[in-house]
C-alpha cells in the first residue's frame, strides 16, 4: 500500500485547451491563473487530497469517483507538497477509464505551457511570424509568399494634364496648350545664338500660349512688308504640350514640382471589384495595414507614351503625400521628364527636390501641328524683283494708246504686205482669216496678254514690225513677248500645290481623352483575395524572419508566435528551474507555432478586433 504524500488533485471541465498546443492562455499572474481554473472546477466532485506522489512526467491517477461525474472532465490540476511543493501542475486529460463502480483511472499529460510559464523567459531566437507592435504602412515589408490572385485598377490619377480635370472639350485643350515654334530663322530673317538645355543652337524658338499667339507668329512670317520670306517655310516644327509646364523663352527648361495628394478612398481605402455572382460591387476593408503595401496595393507610374514602372506607397517619405517633379526640354526635340520626389529615403534623390532619377520616366510622344506653306508666295518672294511685270503692264497700256492712234494709218500697208508675203502668211495664216480691223490688234493683244497668252501675240507683233519696218510694232511685240513669258511662269507656279512644312502628329485617342500625360494607376488585389489574406494576417501575424525576443504581449486579444531554434531561461523573479524534458517540449511548441489568448473567455474567437497594446 503506497504511503500518503499529501498530493492533491482538482478536476476541471470544458477547459478550451488540448495537447496539440495550437492555442493556450496567457495569464498575467499565478493568482489570475488559479482564479480562472477555479471557475472550471467540476462542482460535483471535491478536491482529492492526501494522495500518493503523482509523477510530473505524465501518466495516470486512480481516484475514487463515480464515472458519470467525470463525463465533462478534460483537464486536471495537481501538486505534490513534498516535491515542487509550490508548483501547480496543469494537465490534459487524455483518457478516463472505468475500473469499477467506485474507481476511475485518469490518463493525463502535463500541460508544459500552463505549468511552467511563470518560471521561464524566452531568449532571443529566429522569429518566423508574430503579431507586431507597429502596423504602420511600410513598417513591415517581409514577403509573405501568399497567393494574391488577379489584380484590378480601381482608379487613375493624373500628375499633369492638358485641361482641367474632367474637361473633355477640344476648346479646353487649346486653351491649356502651349505651342513651341522652332524655325531656322526669325520672321525678319535674323539669326542669333541661343543656349537650350546647355547646348548652343542657332535655331529660332518662340512660344505661343494660345491659338491667337500662334496665328500672330504665322502672320509675322507672312507679312509682305517685314517678313524675310513671306512664307512659313523657315518653320521646322510646331509642338504642343500642356501649359502646366509654363515655359518661356528666357527659361525654356522650367521644372514644375507637383504634390499629388493621394486619393484616400482608392489608395488606402477598401478593396472593391464587381462580383458577377451577386451582380454587385463587392467591397472589403482590411484590418491589417500590410494589405495597403506592395504587392497587395501599389501604383503604376506611367508616362504619356505608355512606358511605366511600379512604385510603392510605403517608399514615399509621407504615405499621404506623393510628390513628383516634371521637367521640360524643347531642343533638339520636345521632351519631358517626370520623377518621384522623396522616394526610397531622404538621400536617394538628386537636387533640392530630392527627385529619384532611378524611377524617372521620359516622353517624346507629344502632338505636333501640321503646317503648309504657300508655294506661290514663296516663289514670288524670291523672283518678284527679276520680273518687273507691274511696270511692264503700264508700258503696255502706253503702247496700246499709241497703237490705237497709229495702227489705222498702217492698216492698208499691212493688208497689202500680207496679201503678197509668204512669210506673213505663215504667221497670220490665210489672209481672209485676218481681215479684221487693224486697230483692234492692240486691244486683242492686251486681252490675250492678261490671260497669260501674250507670248504668241508678241511674236506676231515683232514679225509684223520687221516686215513693216515699224519700231512701234517691234517694241510692242518685244514687251508683249516678255510679259507673256512672265505671266506663263506665274500661272505655272500658281498651279503648284502648297508645300508641307511640318507633318502632324496628333497623339490620337490618348490626346483626346486627356490620357497623354503622366499619371498614376492604382493597382489592388480583388476584395475576395484581400479578405483571405487579411484573415490569415489576423490569425498568424506577419512574417518577421529576424533574430529577436519573441513578443507575445503586443495585442489585446491574441498573439501568435512561431520560431526556429527557440531557447528559454530561468525567470529570475520566480527562481524555479524548469525540468530538462519540459524545456525541450516547450521549445518545440514555439518552433511549431502557438497562439496565446489574453482573455480565456474569448479563446478561438477570431471575429474580435485585436488592436495593438498601447
Descriptive notes:
This protein is 27% helix and 28% strand. By secondary structure, the chain is α+β, with helices and mostly antiparallel strands. Among the domains are: 189 residues, no CATH class; 110 residues. The strands form nine sheets. A six-stranded antiparallel β-sheet has the order 3-1-5-6-7-4. It has a five-stranded mixed β-sheet with strand order 2-30-28-9-27. The protein has a four-stranded antiparallel β-sheet with strand order 10-26-19-20. Strand 12 and strand 13 form a beta hairpin. The longest helix is centred in the middle third of the chain and has 32 residues.
Keywords:
6-stranded antiparallel beta sheet, single chain, 5-stranded mixed beta sheet, alpha+beta, 614 residues, 30 strands
Please summarize the sheet with the most strands: 6 strands, antiparallel
Low-confidence stretches: 164-173, 390-397, 430-455, 493-504
Radius of gyration: 50 Å
Number of strands: 30
Helix content: 25-40%
What proportion of the residues form beta strands (DSSP E)?
Answer: 25-35%
Backbone shape:
rod-shaped
Which strand order spans the largest sheet, edge to edge or round the barrel? 3-1-5-6-7-4
SS content category:
alpha+beta
Number of helical regions: 14
End-to-end span in angstroms?
57 Å
Report the average pLDDT across residues: 78
Amino acid at each position: 500500500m503506497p504511503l500518503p504524500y499529501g498530493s492533491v488533485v482538482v478536476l476541471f471541465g470544458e477547459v478550451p485547451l488540448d495537447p496539440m498546443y495550437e492555442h493556450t492562455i496567457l495569464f498575467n499572474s499565478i493568482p489570475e491563473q488559479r482564479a480562472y481554473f477555479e471557475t472550471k472546477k467540476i462542482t460535483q466532485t471535491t478536491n482529492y487530497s492526501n494522495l500518493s506522489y503523482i509523477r510530473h512526467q505524465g501518466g495516470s491517477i486512480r481516484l475514487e469517483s463515480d464515472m458519470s461525474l467525470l463525463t465533462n472532465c478534460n483537464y486536471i490540476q495537481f501538486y505534490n507538497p513534498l516535491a515542487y511543493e509550490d508548483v501547480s501542475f496543469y494537465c490534459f486529460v487524455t483518457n478516463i477509464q472505468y475500473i469499477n463502480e467506485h474507481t476511475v483511472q485518469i490518463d493525463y499529460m502535463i500541460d508544459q505551457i500552463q505549468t511552467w510559464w511563470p518560471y521561464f523567459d524566452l531568449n532571443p531566437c529566429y522569429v518566423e511570424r508574430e503579431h507586431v507592435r507597429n502596423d504602420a504602412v511600410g513598417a513591415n515589408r517581409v514577403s509573405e509568399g501568399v497567393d494574391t490572385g488577379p489584380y484590378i485598377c480601381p482608379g487613375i490619377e493624373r500628375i499633369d494634364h492638358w485641361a482641367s480635370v474632367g474637361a473633355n472639350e477640344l476648346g479646353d485643350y487649346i486653351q491649356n496648350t502651349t505651342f513651341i515654334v522652332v524655325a531656322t530663322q526669325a520672321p525678319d530673317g535674323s539669326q542669333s545664338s541661343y543656349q537650350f538645355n546647355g547646348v548652343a543652337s542657332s535655331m529660332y524658338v518662340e512660344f505661343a500660349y494660345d491659338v491667337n499667339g500662334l496665328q500672330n507668329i504665322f502672320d509675322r512670317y507672312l507679312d509682305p512688308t517685314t517678313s524675310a520670306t513671306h512664307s512659313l517655310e523657315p518653320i521646322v516644327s510646331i509642338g504642343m504640350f500642356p501649359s502646366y509646364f509654363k515655359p518661356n523663352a528666357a527659361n525654356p527648361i522650367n521644372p514644375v514640382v507637383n504634390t499629388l495628394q493621394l486619393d484616400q478612398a482608392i489608395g488606402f481605402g477598401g478593396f472593391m471589384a464587381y462580383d458577377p455572382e451577386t451582380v454587385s460591387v463587392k467591397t472589403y476593408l482590411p484590418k491589417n495595414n500590410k494589405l495597403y503595401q506592395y504587392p497587395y496595393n501599389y501604383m503604376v507610374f506611367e508616362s504619356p507614351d505608355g512606358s511605366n514602372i511600379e512604385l510603392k506607397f510605403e517608399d514615399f517619405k509621407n504615405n499621404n503625400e506623393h510628390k513628383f517633379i516634371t521637367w521640360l526640354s524643347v531642343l533638339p526635340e520636345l521632351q519631358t521628364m517626370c520623377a518621384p520626389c522623396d522616394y526610397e529615403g531622404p538621400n536617394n534623390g538628386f537636387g533640392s527636390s530630392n527627385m529619384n532619377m532611378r524611377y524617372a520616366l521620359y516622353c517624346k510622344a507629344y502632338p505636333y501641328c501640321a503646317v503648309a506653306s504657300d508655294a506661290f508666295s514663296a516663289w514670288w518672294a524670291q523672283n518678284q524683283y527679276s520680273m518687273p511685270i507691274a511696270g511692264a503692264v503700264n508700258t503696255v497700256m502706253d503702247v496700246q494708246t499709241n497703237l490705237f492712234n497709229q495702227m489705222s494709218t498702217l492698216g492698208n500697208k499691212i493688208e497689202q504686205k500680207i496679201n503678197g508675203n509668204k512669210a506673213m502668211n505663215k504667221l497670220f495664216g490665210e489672209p481672209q482669216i485676218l481681215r479684221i480691223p487693224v486697230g483692234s490688234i492692240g486691244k486683242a493683244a492686251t486681252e490675250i496678254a492678261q490671260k497669260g497668252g501674250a507670248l504668241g501675240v508678241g511674236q506676231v507683233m515683232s514679225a509684223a514690225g520687221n516686215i513693216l519696218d515699224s519700231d512701234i510694232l517691234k517694241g510692242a511685240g518685244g514687251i508683249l513677248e516678255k510679259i507673256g513669258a512672265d505671266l506663263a511662269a506665274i500661272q505655272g507656279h500658281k498651279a503648284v500645290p502648297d508645300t508641307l512644312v511640318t507633318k502632324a502628329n496628333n497623339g490620337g485617342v490618348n490626346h483626346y481623352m486627356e490620357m497623354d500625360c503622366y499619371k498614376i494607376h492604382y493597382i489592388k488585389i480583388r476584395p475576395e483575395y484581400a479578405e483571405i489574406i487579411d484573415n490569415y494576417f489576423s490569425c498568424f501575424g506577419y512574417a518577421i524572419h529576424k533574430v529577436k525576443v519573441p513578443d507575445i504581449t503586443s495585442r489585446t486579444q491574441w498573439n501568435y508566435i512561431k520560431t526556429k531554434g527557440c531557447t528559454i531561461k530561468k525567470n529570475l523573479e520566480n527562481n524555479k528551474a524548469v525540468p530538462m524534458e519540459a524545456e525541450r517540449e516547450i521549445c518545440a511548441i514555439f518552433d511549431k507555432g502557438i497562439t496565446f489568448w489574453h482573455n480565456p473567455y474569448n479563446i478561438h474567437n477570431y471575429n474580435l478586433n485585436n488592436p495593438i497594446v498601447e
